[in-house]
Every structure is written in structure tokens, then in C-alpha cells.
Amino acid sequence: MNKKSRRLGMILKGYPRISETFISKEILSLEQNGFDISIFSLRQPRESFTHSHVQQIKAPVTYLPEYILPFWKPLFNANLRLFLFNPRRYLKSFADALKSSMAVSSPLVATVRHFLQAGYLVWTQLLRGDVVHLHAHFAHTPTSVALYASELSGIPFSFTAHAKDIYTSHPAKLRRKISRASFVVTCTECNRQYLSNIAEGLPTPIYTIYHGIDLSRFSFSPEPPQSPPFRILSVGRLVKKKGYDDLLKALWILKNQGFPFEFFHVGDGELRESLQKMAADLDLINNVRFMGTLTHEDLIPLYRRSHVFVLASKVASDGDRDGLPNVILEAMAIGIPVVATNVSAIPEAVHHEKTGLLVPPENPSLLAQAIKRILLNPEDAKTMVVEARRFVENYFDFSIWIPRLCRIFAGVVGNTF
Q1: Which CATH number applies to 215-395?
Q2: 136 neighbors 118 (Cβ within 8 angstroms)
Q3: In the chain, which residues fall in CATH 3.40.50.2000?
């Protein structure tokens, strides 16, 4: 079998997604290191634009039917043919899926949808034989589809676990997925320890591979204006775990103290309207700008014009939390002082009073104090940003981690790396 016939199949929840730069950069880097990849996306793209590097990716993209309705006909036809092709394997896999779902009280409709998507994927794409390994990004839906597709086709699978997909998933479901996988990758040491506890006694390797960043895109050259108002920047989805309600309260404290600032937020999400209303209610309408989603090309100049980067992450009521947001590493690389909360894996990069400042989550008063401390003590801030850049260079350079990931995939795809 020649090299081009041994493909890695990537199962993604959506492709391309503006908020998942780490996935598209990973795919591009794997291709640049000799891997042939096919992308299987469970959703059509949600945005009408994407990052420029996505255009360099050569992998063919197949979009699976997203829902049972209105796509019941292609899903049914593909699964019927797959059943007739190997009825024993199909029925055993379906029974195992239902049994596992009922054991953890998962929604039956979701289980059936994921199984039908897997059957469609196997019949229409995988029986050709060129995909020799499946890898899913995110431990919830994409990995469910990967597991079922693996059982239906005999092709081994693995997955990368990130943040919400880990901490909002039932531990028993995670353990089953880990037990069936060839290996598991996750993006922080905090995540690896959590997954290892769930997988205690299982032989499946669990690797920490940080996403890292491409330092060539983030040269160390902050360019904020030298006089107030101070520019405060945050980048993240407008969801509960990002703590933007706490950050707005901190900004309200700063305004009441007469502190001159402008706050710029980049990103979008389900809480946009409520947070905009909150900003208005706190009389911050002239201080706060919600800029929506931006590409890296538009975001980087905004980084350089900012005096401090702030992220007020917290653990949401459903257990959802951040891992280590790449935007923190990007700010550290460019040379912006970082103020963040000591949640999840953030302390793996932000070391208090060395590479930035950390405060407890859900504490707007301490958050406001930390922001002021950074902005009113430029010499201390300069010391921290120099150390932060050095730390990113030593531990979070993308070029450090992609060869390690390539070696892991080479072991299952058969490439020489």
C-alpha cells in the first residue's frame, strides 16, 4: 500500500470554525509533515469567513448529514446498505451503543443520530480502505461518531480532548471512549491528570500535547499608546465560563474610581445581548466596545495597541471550564501583561507575579486591583512580559509540540517521520 493510500481521517464537529484555529493549524502542520488527511465534519461552517491559513489545507472535506431530519433518507439508505453488508457487526455495534447510552442516561435521540452518522461515514467513505485511522477532536459528539465508526468498520480511532467536552461529559462515557481508543491526546497537564484518574487501570496512553502558537506570527513588539486612556483587551466566547459578567463588574469598579480606560472585547456567543445590556446598566457604554469575531490578521494589531490582556475565566454551573486558552499565550508572546484567574490549566502558563497576575475567579474587586496594579506599575509589568515571552518560547512554541504529535500519528498511520 503506497503512502497516499494511508490516510488519517479527522472527525470534527464543524469545519472550518473561526474559534478553532488550533485545529486548522494542526491539520495544516500535519500535512506539511507528510500526512494525507481526509476531514469529516458533522456541521457546515457557521461563519462566512475564516483564517487565511485554512486556504492552504489540501485535505478533502466531507460534510455528514447533521440531523436525522431532514436528512433521514441518505442516513437510512447508507445504514441499511451497511447493515446488509455485515448484519452481525452492525447489530452488535448498535446494541452496544444503546446499552452504553442507557447506562449513563444519555439522550437516546443523540445516540441514534451519532450512530447513524457513523454508519453513513463508514458506508460512503471508509469502506474504500484509504483511511487507516480515525481521529476526533473533542471528546463528546465527534468522538462518539468516531467510536461507532470504528466499531462498524474495524478502523482504529483516537481522540483529542479539550475543555468543555471533558468536564461536562459523564465519567463513565469518557472511560468507555478511552478504553476503546488507541490513544488520547489532551492539551493541558491538568486535563491529562483528570482523564488519567477516570482511566485508572486502562492501558490506553494519554498524552499532553499543548496547542502552542506560531511565534513567527506573534513577534515581541507591544505598541500601546503611552498615555491614558488605558486599553484593556479580552478575547473569548461570550459564554458563562469566560466570566465576562465578573469582568464588567471589575470595569465598573475602575470607572467609579475615576480610572481612565477603554475596554475592547473580541468574540461572540450566546450571552452577547445580556452582556451588552449589563454594560449599559453599569454605565459602561462609553468605555466598552464589543467588536465581534475577528480573524488573526485583524486581531494581532489590536493586541499590539493594548496595555493589558484580561481573562476572568471561571467554572460554570454545569462544570464547563477553560483549559488553557491560546489567546493568553498569544498575549504573552506579543508582550502584553496578562491578568487572569487561577482556573483549570491557566496557571500552567500564567505564573503569579512572574509571567502575569492571577486572581481567584468570581472576584471582581481583586480583578480590578490586579488590572490597576499592572497599569500603574509599568516597570513591574515590563519585567513580567519579558519573562512571559521567554516562557512561551521555551514551553509553548508550536514547533516544539507538532513533531511530538507527528510521531504519535506516525505510529498508527505508518508514515515515516
Answers
A1: 3.40.50.2000
A2: no
A3: 3-212+398-413, 215-395
Identify the pLDDT of residue 223. 77
The amino acid present at 209, given as its one-letter code, is: I
Q: How many CB atoms lie within 10 A of CB 93?
A: 23
Per residue in 366-390, pLDDT tens?
999 999 999 999 999 999 999 999 9
Q: What is the pLDDT of residue 227?
A: 78
Q: Report the chain's mean pLDDT, rounded to a whole number.
A: 95
In the beta sheet, which residues pair with residue 230?
Answer: 261
Take residue 288 and report the three cell numbers written for it. Answer: 466598552
Q: Which CATH superfamily is domain 3-212+398-413 in?
A: Glycogen Phosphorylase B; (3.40.50.2000)
CB distance 392 to 329 below 8 Å? yes
SS (H, E, C) the chain: CCHHHCEEEEEECCCCCCCCHHHHHHHHHHHHCCCCEEEEECCCCCCCCCCHHHHHCCCCEEECCCCCCCCHHHHHHHHHHHHHHCHHHHHHHHHHHHHHHHHCCCCHHHHHHHHHHHHHHHHHCHHHCCEEEEEEECCCHHHHHHHHHHHHHCCCEEEEECCHHHHCCCHHHHHHHHHHCCCEEECCHHHHHHHHHHCCCCCCCEEECCCCECHHHCCCCCCCCCCCCEEEEEECCCCHHHCHHHHHHHHHHHHHCCCCEEEEEECCCCCHHHHHHHHHHCCCCCCEEECCCCCHHHHHHHHHCCCEEEECCCCCCCCCCCCCCHHHHHHHHHCCCEEEECCCCHHHCCCECCCEEEECCCCHHHHHHHHHHHHHCHHHHHHHHHHHHHHHHHHCEHHHHHHHHHHHHHHHHCCCC
Q: Locate 338 and state its grid cell.
A: 496578562
- CB of 197 closer than 8 Å to CB of 217: no
Q: Read off the C-alpha cell for 202.
A: 486502562
Q: How far is CA 218 from the centre of its chain?
A: 19
* Cβ-based burial of 45 (10 A; exposed 0-12, middle 13-18, buried ≥19): middle
Return the closest-CA partner of residue 317 out of 173, 192, 110, 164.
164
Q: How far apart are CA 81 and CA 75, in angstroms?
A: 10
Could you give the CA distance from residue 102 to residue 322 in angstroms, rounded to a whole number?
Answer: 29
